[in-house]
Write a structure and sequence with these properties.
The complex is a heterodimer of chains A (55) and B (410).
Chain A lengths: L2 E3 L6 E3 L36 E3 L2
Chain B lengths: L1 E8 L4 E7 L3 E7 L7 H4 L2 H13 L7 H17 L11 H6 L1 H27 L4 H26 L4 H10 L8 H12 L15 H26 L10 H20 L3 H23 L27 H6 L6 H6 L21 H9 L1 H14 L17 H8 L9
Antiparallel strand pairs in B: 1-2, 2-3
Helix pairs in contact in B: 2-3, 3-14, 5-6, 5-7, 6-7, 6-8, 6-11, 8-9, 9-11, 11-14, 14-15
The chains are: A mainly beta (55), B mainly alpha (410).
Bound molecules: zinc ion.
């Protein structure tokens, strides 16, 4: 399970946690998020802008 | 990377400093630190007319707060001029951390409830002319419009508490869908023909408002409905953030009708509409005519600093939590008001927002002042294909500003 970060505002999507408020249950892969996914915090960055985090 | 932070608090200001490995020692003193406390004094203005009414026993006094809005504020923007304070980018993280600033926004939330209830009490208990009731409803609506501005500041932030407070304060003007529609809709679609909250060249504010208010409500509801569908919940449930805010509105405004009688129905209708219209006015002037280009992949280019109109006047910026430093806000929507920066070479309005609202209310004057400013922007340079033009006015605008006529602009 990986993490993906918005380069604009640092919102981080953690696949292991999902995003409860947005309705993405734990285990939802970043890949399977909708194509028109924008950053839930800033809405400035699109899905393809997100950067995978190494950990 | 950064090595050391210091943060020296003195009586009137705070100095932030750090050692930057590339740029060396950087220091910034926020001279506006204490000016931001004026947000706590602002509720005095809507009730000032009432105080003067009792002092002088004249209903004419009730009009003073509105005169302040539309005459005194634009004059002070002109007279006090630009805001020279601009925090260096490196200092922004320290400013963001300083909790003093955010507490001020939290404290304004209850004030919006108190002011509406106080003015409603006055309307419900005094023997007033119809004109006085209308003036008071507009005054209350204008202050509740500032409540939408407070909600705007709070609703963009990441902490739960601040998003919760945004939902609460939006209940005063019954505009609970705003934060969702604004954060997830307007910021995504800004400066495109798809955005009901971005105005087009040739579109008057009176035409815009008919597109903006219903369009925003529809988009806000759609965004929330999609989120709830992913959660497997109905949009008609207590989980709907919009309905939660509307429910508080129903209790507040229903309570006022029960307490002060039928007069509250027209009073609240005017109040609500005028509060919404404050937001409409801001939306109208913030992106007028500006257009993001479509890229090869079908997406719009990312919102750039030249996709927002700014006003760097100190007085109205203090009233509006730096809303007028709008380009930085769209580049960094979660950035807190105290850290928003001004830049050279971004679209600048010739007065603060309140002065520009008056121009917007007189469409021919607005076009006269603004259309040539749109076309003179360096990235547009007279090219109408880079302007967000009202389709109904397209022929007229192309005839007036189209090819070969650019010389007339200069
Ligand atoms: Zn983001």
């Amino acid at each position: 399970m990986g993490k993906y970060r918005c380069p604009g505002c640092e919102y981080t999507y953690d696949e292991a946690l999902g995003d409860d408020h947005e309705g993405y249950p734990p285990g939802t892969t970043f890949e399977s998020l909708p194509e028109d996914f924008t950053c839930p915090d800033c809405a400035v960055r699109y899905k393809e802008d997100f950067e995978p985090l190494e950990d | 990377m950064l090595t050391t932070y210091t943060n020296e608090v003195t009586v009137m200001s705070t100095t932030y400093a750090l050692q930057d490995s590339e740029r060396g020692y950087i220091e910034y003193t926020d001279k506006k630190r204490h000016l931001w406390m004026s947000s706590l004094a602002l509720p005095l203005f809507p009730v000032l007319g009432i105080a003067l009414y009792f002092a002088f026993d004249s209903q004419w006094m009730l009009v003073i707060p509105l005169l302040f809005n539309y005459l005194v504020i634009p004059f002070l923007d002109y007279a006090l001029g630009a805001d020279e304070n601009n925090p260096p980018e490196e200092i922004v993280p320290q400013l963001e951390q300083d909790t003093y600033y955010r507490v001020l926004t939290w404290l304004t939330v209850p004030m919006h409830f108190i002011v509406l209830i106080a003015i409603a009490w006055f309307v419900g208990t005094q023997d007033l002319t119809l004109w006085s009731v209308i003036v008071l409803a507009l005054t209350a609506g204008s202050y509740s419009g500032l409540g939408i501005n407070t909600a705007h500041e709070l609703g963009h932030k990441k902490p739960e508490l601040e998003r919760f407070l945004a939902k609460i304060v939006l209940a005063v003007p019954a505009y609970g869908h705003f934060c969702i529609e604004h954060n997830r809709g307007h910021h995504r679609d800004v400066a495109t023909p798809e955005d009901p909250a971005s105005s087009r060249m040739g579109e008057s504010i009176y035409k815009f408002v008919l597109r903006e208010i219903p369009g925003a409500a529809r988009r806000g509801w759609e965004v929330e409905k999609e989120r709830l569908a992913r959660l497997g919940k109905s949009e008609w449930s207590v989980h709907n953030d919009i309905l939660q805010s509307y429910a508080i509105s129903a209790v507040l405004q229903g309570g006022l009708i029960i307490a002060f009688g039928w007069i509250m129905i027209p009073f609240l209708a005017i109040h609500n509409f005028f509060a919404w219209f404050q937001l409409t006015s801001a939306n109208y002037i913030e992106h007028y005519g500006l257009l993001r280009q479509k890229e090869a992949n079908g997406r719009y280019e990312r919102c750039q600093p030249h996709h927002s109109w700014n006003a760097n006047y100190i007085f109205s910026n203090i009233l509006l939590f730096h809303l007028e430093r709008h380009s930085d806000h769209h580049a960094n929507p979660t950035r807190r008001y105290q850290s928003l920066r001004n830049f050279d070479d971004i679209p600048q309005l010739p007065n603060g927002y309140y002065g520009m609202y008056i121009l917007a209310y007189i469409p021919w004057l607005w076009y006269r002042v603004m259309d040539k400013r749109v076309l003179a922007l360096p990235h547009i340079n007279g090219d109408l294909s880079k302007v967000n033009v009202d389709p109904d006015k397209r022929d007229e605008i192309f005839a007036r500003f189209g090819e070969g006529k650019q010389a007339a602009l200069v």
